[in-house]
Design goal:
491 residues, alpha+beta, 8-stranded mixed beta sheet, two-stranded antiparallel ribbon, 14 strands, 53% helix, disordered N terminus
């Protein structure tokens, strides 16, 4: 790496030259700000090093938005130096030794060296301030995150062989995996997230520890687990991370509905169980995400969650039918309720939970379309029920076709093409996305000479149903229909 005056590492294997060359260009982007900050700390008698994700990502050719540093300075000293260096500074967690600052567009987090001290009566470590960079790196989750760049001299520090592990695409822990996961069980979720995000394999000893200790994830707050799950789902290869999460037993504690699908064979007893089908639907849904200017820009969390959850109602609705068949009647309704329950447990926000649950509830609605022609009214109801999730529903429904029967797949695809074309045509004529009755509540009360109450609501629903059935009506015809309906209610 140009500018590096030394390399500190405990193993002698050669540095992956290509990774070093890749990092060179990335480091150059923020080297001026980093080295300047390093001089500020050095002039005050303290060490400073760029650490963690920004160093790892540089070797992967990605520049980090935020820069993480470790220092020998204590928090109060760090705060004083950052106050002089930056345009603004703030306390991000003084109890953990972290102070943040901004200078122009550059945002930094500086944390005092830390190490672990174990009480003989407890396996839970007490985090205390350390006095060395190597000691600080030793407490990090994985070797690929335990690399650093000393500042201002740009000395690359890699005491645990993280660069070689990154080149080999392997995930190891600096300390024993048992100690690492006992320190923070969330690191097991970070392992599966990195598998999806970085395309790395988990070292067998690490995987064994994850499998043995999977149950400890339950002591971690739902909010922290959810944050890692979201990062996994938004990664380039979420299927990879989910498969590892299931294999290691973590999913049984985080998302038990997913491994439960392995117990449910599809109704045709052919090439897939529901678990494999679900992962394939996820892959296909991701392929249908759009560019940033499209209707469903990827990565799209709601669509990906819906793909994972769409069939979770099948185990609870599985029934053996005469002749040896299997049915899953109303699994979409059961699945929507299960989805809401799980997402609430994981502390997802209300809007995301409602959107995903709606998609799960509606994902089978289309399948009647291929069997019999829908009326315009049925198409309008499909659009109205989907609401603002229509574009996602299009993609989930298409992704749900995983049959190997090419003729059947083509038939379903053509049927959905036809449905989308009809929706587009109706939308152009009627602005379907904002369907309203031809007469609003005020007009209904004026025409019928009544005040607010249940009768107005009933009349509104009648006019909305009429709108769905017949499309927009001229005002005089809508008035006649309302009066006719009102007369029929008086008997």
């Amino acid at each position: 790496m140009a500018g590096c005056t030394a390399v500190s590492t405990t193993r002698e294997s050669p540095e992956p030259v290509e990774l070093l060359r890749t990092a060179l260009g990335v480091i150059a982007e923020y080297a001026p700000q980093a080295t300047e900050l390093g001089r500020v700390f050095a002039d005050a008698g303290f060490e400073l090093a760029l650490v963690g994700g920004p160093v790892r990502d540089a070797f992967l050719g990605k520049a980090s938005v935020d820069l993480d540093f470790a220092t020998s300075a204590r928090p109060e000293e760090t705060e004083r130096l950052l106050a002089a260096w930056g345009d603004a500074h703030w306390d991000m967690g003084r109890e953990f030794g972290t102070i943040g600052a901004r200078r122009g567009d550059v945002i930094v987090e500086v944390t005092t060296y830390r190490t672990e001290a174990y009480d003989s009566s407890s396996r839970k470590p007490e985090v205390v301030y350390g006095d060395s960079l190597d000691g600080d790196l030793s407490r990090r989750d994985f070797t690929v995150n335990a690399m650093a760049l000393r500042l201002p001299d740009l000395v690359f520090v890699d005491p645990f062989g993280g660069l070689n592990d990154l080149a080999d695409r392997i995930l190891r822990t600096p300390a024993s995996p048992e100690q690492s996961f006992d320190d923070d069980p969330l690191r097991m979720m970070r392992a599966v997230r990195f598998a999806a995000q970085l395309g790395v394999d988990v070292e067998p000893g690490v995987l064994a520890a994850m499998t043995a200790m999977a149950g400890r994830i339950e002591i971690v707050s739902a909010e922290r687990v959810q944050a890692e799950l979201v990062k996994l789902l938004m990664a380039p290869a979420p299927r990879r991370g989910l498969e590892l999460m299931v294999y290691a037993g973590l999913a049984e504690h985080v998302l038990p509905e997913l491994p439960n699908l392995q117990l449910t064979i599809d109704e045709h007893h052919r090439h897939k169980d529901v678990y494999e089908h679900t992962l394939t639907v996820l892959d296909q849904a991701i392929d249908l995400e759009t560019s940033p200017d499209g209707p469903v820009p990827g990565p799209d969390l709601v669509l990906r969650l819906a793909a994972i959850m769409h069939d979770i109602g099948k185990p609870d609705t599985r029934r053996m039918e005469p002749g040896g068949g299997v049915s899953f009647h109303h699994h979409e309704i059961v699945g929507a309720k299960m989805t809401t329950k799980r997402m609430k447990a994981l502390r997802f926000d209300k809007a995301t939970t409602q959107a995903v649950s709606k998609l799960v509830a509606l994902h089978l609605r289309f399948h009647g379309y291929g069997d019999a022609a829908w009326t315009d009214s049925a198409v309008r109801r499909y659009v109205a029920d989907a609401g603002d999730q229509l574009e996602r529903l299009h993609r989930l429904t298409r992704a749900d076709c995983t049959t190997r029967n090419k003729r059947k797949a083509a038939r379903l695809s053509h049927a959905y093409d036809d449905l989308e074309n009809r929706i587009a045509a109706l939308a152009e004529e009627e602005e379907l996305n904002a369907i309203r009755p031809d007469l609003d509540g005020n007009a209904i009360m004026e025409i019928l000479g009544i005040g607010p109450g249940r009768q107005v609501g009933a009349a509104y629903k009648h006019m909305l149903a009429l709108r769905m059935e017949r499309g927009p009506l001229p005002e005089d015809e809508a008035r006649r229909e309302l009066l006719s309906w009102w007369e029929s209610q008086q008997g």
